[in-house]
Amino acid sequence: MAESEYKVVRRLEGQKRLAGMIMAHYGGALEIEKNKSKPVAWVSAGTPAEILWAMDFCVQFPEAYAATCGARHIAHSHVEITEQRGYEHHLCTYCRNSLGASISQLEGMSQFSELARPDFLLVANNSCILITKWWEHLSQLWNIPMFNIDCPLVIPAYEEKYLVDHVKRQCLDLITYLEEFTGKKFDYDRLQEIVANGQRSSKYYMAMLEANKHDPVPATFFDIMGHNFPNLVLRYLPETAEHYRLMTEELNQRIADKIIPMSNMKHRIYWDGIPYWFAIRELSEKLESLGLCLVTSGYFDMFSFEQLDSSRPLDSVAEGVATMILNHNVSFKTKITENIFRNYNLEGGIFAYAQSCKPFSITMRYIAEHVQKSLDVPVTIIEGDLVDETFYDGERNNMKLQALAETLAARRG
Amino acid sequence: MITAGIDIGSTTTKAVVLKADDQFVYALQPTGIEISSVSRQVLAEACENAGLQPEDLDRIVATGYGRISIPFATTTITEITCNAYGVHYLFPNASLVVDIGGQDSKVIKFDKNGRVVQFAMNDKCAAGTGKFLEVAAQTLGVPVSEMGDISQQSQNKVSISSTCTVFAQTEIVSLIARQTNKEDIAAGLHESIVSRVFGLISSVNPDPQAEVVLTGGVAKNVAIVNLLERMLGRKISVPEDPQIVTALGAALLARQWES
Amino acid sequence: MEEILATFRDYCEKPYERAAQIKAAGKTKIIGCLPMYFPEEIIHAAGALPVTLFGSDDPITLGDGHLMTNACDQVRSSFDSLLKGKYDFLDGIAAIYICDQVRFYLEVWQLDHPVDFFHQMWRPYKWDSSTQEFFHRELKRLIARLEEFTGNKITTEKLKASIRLYNKSRNLMRQLNELRKEHPGIIRASDMACVVASSMLLPKEEHNELLAKLLAQLTQQELSAGKKQRIIAVGHPCSMPEREILDMIEDNGMLIVDDDFFTGGRYFSKDIALNDDPLDAIIDFNANAIPCTTGHYADAWIQPDKIYSPYAEYVIDLMKHGQAKGVVVLKEMYCDPYDMEFVLMKNRFEEEGIPYISISSGSLEAIRTRVQAFGETLQFV
After folding, report:
1. Distance between CA atoms of residues B18 and B37, nearest Å
2. By the CB < 8 Å criterion, does C108 face chain A?
3. Structural domain boundaries, residue A241
4. Which end of chain B is more exposed for a tag (fewer CB within 10 A), N or C?
């Protein structure tokens, strides 16, 4: 790639729009809490949030909030609060950020903007069972009811129908419970509308991700990952699809105009795992200096909600919950990863091990080793955590990233 | 061309000066806090040993954790790449190096040109490194250099269960309190180190026939070599001066460096 | 009596010797079950021998190959044993996903060291009429696969007979447990753990015989607690408690009168209440099992005025029924469910003024000091 032909423009136009959407969501939720105009629910990423949106709940996502806390470097103070209350150091820091923030809020100690106080909690164990325990602790702190959806690990031995039925039965139980909780009848037409919005939003979300198949990419993984937020938190709104349509347009325009997101784009690299929210700038600078361009990540798959289908609203919602990407065996995840490498023509991999996230970390080394062996690509595993900076060793990680760059350079030439 | 490689490790800084006729000499000193000035000193000493002045050097490559603090280096290359290349130079048939350093353990798989294929490092716990032995030696009241020999005299090795250097220290103290002899404790410690490293080795899927080389300060410990040979089921090669292989690799790579 | 206890201890020291012998005789298939809760009765009804797979005390070498060190010891150690060939006498391996670590890693066992019969099974973390249906399906799937693998039909009668046998085993263990509640010190906690653990390593028929003999001898003894304080010990999920720690507790002014260990109360407290349909009975047994930190008990969390930790309440009940003065909590390092629950437990203990101490695996010396201190404080309660 002759770099002289290309112009570096780091910022995406869509960034402003995204920031507006995020602020509107959090600000709007606090308004709702003040006016008590709607019940507020806190949910985990893998839940059938469509059901709550259809019942006009204000829905918030503590996991997304944790990412924000990490990025703003306030997670550590939340996490410390939990350690004083007896939570062990190795426990998930998304969880402990959330519990610490809740404790702060309840005891009037918050120094930062908060989530609107919850009236109801919904969680699914398709991402992990620790999240169920996390939600139990939220239930205990806020003294409000919680509902859990049990999701069996997807293995080839099952017919998908039985997995989906299992989840759907629980969704119907949830609906019954919510009708009592709100005193309103569940509106299946509204559900269909919401699923249709989510379906459109997901379609444009996937189109946006395709843009990075181009060489050179119009944006790096770090540039785009913030745009997971709308599909997770706001896919029920009609304007979310429009955001992704515009994003896709912008990225394709950048490709046409020969605009690139960074200088020194030497190697196309895969990122695995949840980003280290507190270290993005540091990592971006380091990666640019080494010529490593982050093209894409399996992390996007968690926010794709591709199953949504307005012709079968509840069924497709249940399907999405039951077959969420994290809820699979390691061989399945390895194959998905290998496909991403092939589809996006990637040369190397950075696997970001998160000390406190056992579901991700327990299979990470296996997947990294197998991808390295089957595709003959160099990979490295760096160490850190989702939001707790004390686990991040910049020195060692920089060395591993540099070694990866050196290995890639040696292969080329 | 005359090149030099400086390897700034957490404990020791090593410098190798490589002459045009492929002869090389080295020097080493404890790193301390003044990284830049210690590096200059070590480099000057190595130059002196070579009968040269620092100005005679055409290029200098800095490696090791302190590499970014060397303003007079031509460029920096990681110790992963340098270690593999240095080992490849000394052992042309090798394809795997195990480096048990002061604070880091690494395993590097490389190809027949000395280029890195895959590498793995210990996660942050220091129980598979030289530090572990140092702390243990201190606790047992024996010189670190004698730990290997002492462990070989064990008749009844004890298992050290702690995965952490700090906890292992407490464990050693309680073993001593229970009249366990230091030979058996030392043997258990050595096994602990080697088993931690073994996990790293299996993670890079080495060729079962690969020639394996051991580098780093701990490579001079006969007990470690023997244990590792037993675990891998083959002989291991150890360079004459295992501590300076990475700096040598840096000096060699300096020759190939293009701006 | 000492001889029988020594036999039980021996089985724990050499856990798979008996199973390997049976395997060598050539007529029985051996299926290894990872802790906890695998429905062993069904394996038994297929004419195979279920044995529980514990890790070992060996330093972990191969087991670290793919795993980072924040996996719990049981998971790392048993994986290490698998790769070292210690389980090579097995014809099959089966497990339910007791936690995130097992759930996401289990398949690697089969990928790295395959066996002829490998069975991953889902046991719901939340039990209600909706989730039970899936478990029913899972039981039928297990039956179908076992029938295919062993060539033996698992009839209703055979399954009932196996359940009866396992109930008998649990009954004998409960009798032993009652004895130690009435006469603390009649059997050491470490031996009690060996008795239960060894039942997971032998054919139940053999174990029942041995245990019945032990009971007959014990009922002839009378012991009093003396100055020692009655306590209960809880925790140590998924593994054998370290005998040294149990001995240490009982050598420091305390007697463990009850527990909820996997190799203890958790295993034998309740029976499968047989009725016409053994599968229904098994489902019922699981839905009403003593609380586990991995479980989500919907009723306890869905009603705003009724929010509590069923596990913490169970431990407090266990203590009261045992007339114990305090609780020793044995925690496994890096066990997420238990460490989360522990925060709720300690809040409850503090609310009720219950003396407790928590012990994580670590240096015996450090543990000894804390245990001694705890024993001393109990004198003043």
Report:
1. 21
2. yes
3. 190-412
4. C
